[in-house]
Please model this.
Amino acid sequence: MEVVLSPRGASRWMAGHPWIFQSDITPPATLAGGEVVRVCDQRGRCLGQAFYSRSSKISLRRLSRDERPVDEDFFRQRIRTAVELRRAMLPGETTWRAIHGDGDELPGLVVDRYGDYLSVQFLIPAIEQRREMLVRLLAETLACKGIVNRSDVAVRGLEGLPAEKGVIYGTVPDTVPMREGQIEMAVNLLEGQKTGAFLDQRENHIVAGRYARGRALDCFSYVGGFALQMARRADHVTAIDSSEPACEQIRANVGRNKLANVEVLCANVFDFLRAEFDAGKRYDTIVLDPPAFARNKAARDAGLRGYKEINLRAMQLLTPGGYLISSSCSHHIDEEHFETMLQAAAADAHREVQIIERRGAGRDHPVLLALRETRYLKCYVLRVL
Ligand code: SAH
Model:
């Protein structure tokens, strides 16, 4: 089946952009969605192949710039290439994002490896329809004992797919161990947030551990990734999350690592920071890693107000020379927006702030140069004077 691109679509494709939007194609009525299609320009020249989505605004996602068969062997090779990259880049590690969708030329497929177990998201119809084959190939390539499907995400709705989750291969225990540097944690792949943990922050957890000192605060702690690393250097760490199951997991992880200096609070960070400021409390290291406050473009300004409030409070609470490790995982807030917000927070807090590191997601979350807008995670190490 062929899909013809508009001249604008063809020039986007030729410039390397792997996504073609609805407005740049006229799909044949016979396409149901989920097919591999030949992508052609208006002169009938074949430019490559793509997955077709019927409901999504993103109609085509590039698979290749040629006409090689897109068969089981094609997917096997793509999976192997992605896995080999992680094995070479993260020797000795057994927890990593194995497949990062478009970043690994496997649009719509996300695979997180937690040792012997995988947690997978099938995000578009083409990937959903090939689920059985992909599960087989993943089990073969990664020799895993069990696979969890965590396709219970809102973006599936944009693709006309229902939310789903469950064990789809082998068996998976309630909690699965994972190691981050010297810290050992247990996560719940089926009931936990995202695919069980936030693997994109793994390298940043370790970095935060290097900066931590004195009295440290980990806001939006989830299972304690930042708090536990900081506890190795800081005198005392307070980990805060509003979710009771998350707090229980932090406590279990604190026990697992025999740490005696971590206190876990189940509370709303906004209220907590305000109360600490009013009470005149001070901290030497603060981590802020909130959920996405801006889930779409329209919510950007409201989101930025939320980020500003917590960053402003954190800056006020820091002792001179204290470190603020501040993240945002909102796709719709780029580095420019984020830095402008930080500057406004610093101005209101009457503090000078140095940028020490501008970080992002870990190296197992590669981003295509032509798809830089998918670089969602920002993690800044700041020093507040
Ligand atoms: N820092 C974690 C990931 C945090 S995800 C890590 O690196 O692994 C965001 C967390 O914020 C979730 O666990 C969620 O339960 C929590 N959360 C959301 N809103 C909150 C609020 N207002 N106060 C406290 N925690 C909140």
Observations:
- The chain has eleven helices and 19 strands.
